[in-house]
Amino acid sequence: MEKFCFFDDGSFYLNQPDQVSYLYFPLANVEGVMSSVTPELSGDSKTSQNTFLLSPVSSEDLHNNKSSRNFWCKINGTSIWSVTGRSAWQQAQKFSRDREETRLEAGFLWHKITRISKALGLKGIITSFVPANHDQVELMKVELTNIGAEAITLEPAAAIPLYCRSADNIRDHRHVTSLLHRIEVLERGIIVNPTLTFDERGHKINEIVYGVLGGNGDILPSKFYPTVDSFIGEGGSFENPRALQDDCLKPMKAGDRIDGYEAFGGLGFEEILLQPGESKAYIIVLGYGRSKEDFIAYGEKYLSEEAYDQAFEEMKVYWKRQLNVRFETGDDNFNHWMHWVTIQPILRRIYGCSFLPHHDYGRGGRGWRDLWQDCLALLLMDPREVRTMLKENFQGVRMDGTNATIIGKNRGEFIADRNNITRVWMDHGVWPLITTHLYIQQSGDIEFLLEKVPYFKDMQAVRGEQKDTLWTEEQGKTCLTQDNKPYLGTILEHLLMQHLTAFYDVGEHNHIRLRGADWNDALDMARDKGESVPFTALYASNLETLAELIEILEAKGFTTIELAKEMEVLLANEDSYGDYKKRQSILMEFCMSTKHKVSGETISISAKTLSNILRGMGQFIKDYIRNTEWISDGKDAFWFNGYYDNLGQRVEGVHPSGVRMMLPSQVFTIMSGTATDEQVKLITKAADQYLYTREIGGYRLNADFKEVNLNLGRMFGFAYGHKENGAVFCHMAVMYAYALYSRGFVKEGFKVIDTLYSHSMDFEKSKIYPGIPEYFDEKGRGMYHYLTGAASWLMFTLIQQVFGIVGKMGDLTFEPKLLKCQFNEDNRAGIAFDFAKRHFYVEYVNEEGLDYGEYQVKKIAGNLGEHFTENSSVIKREVIENLQSDQVYKITVTLGRKGENEWI
Ligand code: G1P
């Protein structure tokens, strides 16, 4: 199998990509065009669940061609050749010695596939991209070159099957929805305007047109095949169409219309003569419009090579600007790999979790966790709008500390949950604080915590256990006071609501109840008695973080904190902490008092008292976990048990079928500071023994339980080594790395990232383009590529931990944890990033070639204006705010041997 190679700008090439299955590449813009494309131009294109231009594909559809874009050439009036390789005869030769040469080149975000037929003396190149502007189109340029010794005649034809409807109709009403199609042949293409839409929203007037245009300047299509049957003919197929082979199919012409059939973008061009060495190009535009005129206006302007090339260059510049975080270690391949990782959070924002061929949720949308994770990456890449976005997201928190789980299309829009069985994910409360804390540290904007926002309201109450039957849609999705005014609480109060309710929401082992699941969505069958230790631990450190933030507020003069009166009961004294029943009854009392409406009254509590209570709670949890959940295999391996199942039984430890260990249980006990340093050391040994498999990317999510455990979750129904059952699940593995780095276990953290990186880049095994996938399966194949929270966390880990670019209440500090092997041969490592809306490039200089542990920061130098003093360990906010926003500032951070002359 071939390997891919990078060019300097991060683009790469790969020979014979068509010999590998499941490869797909994203093409998108922020206007909502979401395409995927394979080496043979399969994949699809849509702007939402209900507006698919090309027939929706899942990964298994990639090897059939129901939606493949195609481009045909009839050569010398006889044989037909597919530039995408999708003809029956080319497919039949694919594994023979006569196979055609193919080569992929791809960059941010463009895809270029070259196909060479030596036998026919022809080379075809198709370059695809989506312009980085407001146009909802995908563009293809097809370049045909005669590479033979003889002149040839060519009759080219674009062939794009047009689906033009909701993904729901792939089975439901597949045929009758084609009866809705009104198809018109234009001067330069074909447009489909369905009369109605039939989908989950009912029968509605359709508002989107779809179409294909083609040509190049004066070159216009002259034969049109606007329906599937007009192109493939009776008995034909997309891989063996009759249109170019058979005179019995009569093409249509501009101005013709046909209604009620499966639509097709078949655009035939006049026959041309190509001399040896000569080339000809055709531009094809696939897209969407609000009306026919709208679509023609967007689309036609691209129908010349100059216009296409200009849009292509603009798109490249756009993505270059977007990808402003760059890493420069001594390993170029690693740097390029990370470059691709940095585009993934942007892709997740565009595609959600549903719109590439491997998809988690079928219907679009993002979850609560994803929402906050996206903000995490945004904070690191483009923090301009984050404040408003964070504020809007807090409106999804309910009065019982849970949150809306159906997230609307517009920012800050949450949808009422009308399910009878409500799902509460017990981890949901931890993510907003992690993101908000990063925001505050990066910006110094502590007053953000005092902004007031409403609470979300729907029928769900008492943390998913009861329904508020008094609530009606008319009351609205905002929690009201007794006198029917929206109740507004500070962001700090929202955060406290999430953490304090969770603190009391414990099971009989006094850990927080698992409820519908935690981060691991597939731990979903322990609703009654399940408990999650790892996230209890994370709540503990979050409680301490809240205490810290309140202390900062106090130091700024906010000595009292205003809270909803009902919350008073949640600030009970520590006598109740050890008794799970007492904790449960406190929670119940609180939830009942806010079930329908709230009083609207508030209490004031001294900041000092509040922060002491929060610290006490955090400390209690940590001690309690240390005392109760530290387990061993009976030999010399030790780690934390993380779960109780629906029978109230401990999950991890020694079991007749083998040792059971889970990675999340270790990650969050480490990250939260629950595990002592000694314990971290032992955990890493145990994880190496029970979870590490280098051949498939490193640390698995869990050991093999060898049973379908119906008392814990559906994950055990998955075959072992796949997805949430024991795969190397990159998001958790990366969080493991983060946790280890944050505790100073740098070599161990490096090992986690290095194994993920090496495996991802080992194309023979991972079989994915550069980037980090959701997980590696049992054979090591990268799955669910691109759309994963692993990317945001990997960036976060690299920036904050490895390169140690840390915001401290708005100041910039440097705490590198780079190993010697990560510096280049000149003992330098660099990072480009934005901070406080300014661009920086930091170069660490490690002249003595010291390793982590041996060095410390000795000097920070740079042309940072008059307010900056070189012998300081931080760059103050005032210094940064006096810098220009359109310039890149280079900062040199000199590292020297620890302990020797402190500051040079
Ligand atoms: C996916 C989900 C994420 C969930 C995880 C484990 O992970 O999107 O919310 O926590 O599975 O069940 P991701 O796509 O972030 O890799």
TrEMBL record:
Keyword match Glycosyltransferase: yes
One term of GO molecular function: glycosyltransferase activity
Pfam families according to UniProt: GH94_b-supersand, Glyco_hydro_94
SUPFAM superfamilies named in the record: Galactose mutarotase-like, Six-hairpin glycosidases
Database matches in CDD domains: GH94N_LBP_like
Domain Glycosyl hydrolase 94 catalytic positions: 318-553, 617-804
PANTHER family: CELLOBIONIC ACID PHOSPHORYLASE (PTHR37469:SF2), CELLOBIONIC ACID PHOSPHORYLASE-RELATED (PTHR37469)
Protein name: Cellobiose phosphorylase
Species annotation: Defluviitalea raffinosedens
